[in-house]
Amino acid sequence: MTKKELLDAIHGRMIVSCQAVKGEPLYVEEKSVMYLMARAAKQAGATMIRTSGVRDVVAIKEETGLPVIGLIKIQYEGYDAYITPTMKEVDELVEAGADIVALDCTIRKRGDGTTINEFIAQIKEKYPDLMLMADVSNYEEGVNAWKCGVDIVGTTMSGYTPYTEAKDGPDYELMSHLAADLDIPVIGEGKIHSPEEAVKALSTGVWAIVVGGAITRPLEIAQRFMKAIAKAKGEA
Ligand SMILES: CC(=O)N[C@H](C=O)[C@@H](O)[C@H](O)[C@H](O)COP(=O)(O)O
């Protein structure tokens, strides 16, 4: 698929994030099971999947035949970013066949001393045709990534950096500001928990949205029910 075809396939739509990393209930050591979540997402009408780790990129592409936004979550010493922080992860994702590579593009400390701008430039030099999705936490980072030549900016990291407010729901404001000012697609991602929130997020003008935990993280879903019940009982 060309870059345009990939973008057209998701315009106005929901991408489903199917992720389970070590320690999560749906992470199974012996074998990826997230392809089953992706199967469900495809049956529901999803046209693209976001996932983490080489084995899930491979298994999900094999199962669904859908294009995949791939990332690798890994925490290195000296790095604040943990989403595809170095070229090693980019290489692995390219090798695995990810159609788009997502990486942390927040302006935080990188262990090798490079700036995020330098890292993006290195990736673009090595893989000129690779589509990049920049996961950012605020407006400035979105503009910066756009100027560095990424293809997509996502609001993924809003509320997950020390300098952004950790809200319980989506950052609609960031979505609409970035969507208004950037001339590349913006993806609204992070804490979209209900169909109503999904519709509202899309109405901010973003190109597409990503919904993850509310669909594919059973622990998170169950906890949300438990919390609401405890609150109603006056226990929380
Ligand atoms: C902050 C971070 O590490 N986000 C990760 C990025 O890929 C995932 O854990 C999220 O599930 C994803 O962004 C979708 O968001 P939500 O699950 O809230 O719909």
From TrEMBL:
Listed Pfam families: NanE
CDD domains reported for this sequence: NanE
Alphabetically ordered keywords of this record: Carbohydrate metabolism, Isomerase
Enzyme class: isomerase
Reactions listed under catalytic activity: an N-acyl-D-glucosamine 6-phosphate = an N-acyl-D-mannosamine 6-phosphate
InterPro entries per record: Aldolase_TIM (IPR013785), NanE (IPR007260), RibuloseP-bd_barrel (IPR011060)
Keyword Isomerase attached: yes
EC number: 5.1.3.9
Leader peptide range in chain numbering: none
Keyword Isomerase: yes
Metabolic or biological pathway, per its Swiss-Prot or TrEMBL entry: Amino-sugar metabolism; N-acetylneuraminate degradation; D-fructose 6-phosphate from N-acetylneuraminate: step 3/5
Its job: Converts N-acetylmannosamine-6-phosphate (ManNAc-6-P) to N-acetylglucosamine-6-phosphate (GlcNAc-6-P).
Xref: NCBIfam families: PRK01130.1 (NF002231)
Family, similarity comment: Belongs to the NanE family.
Name of this chain's protein: Putative N-acetylmannosamine-6-phosphate 2-epimerase
Species assigned in the record: Muricoprocola aceti
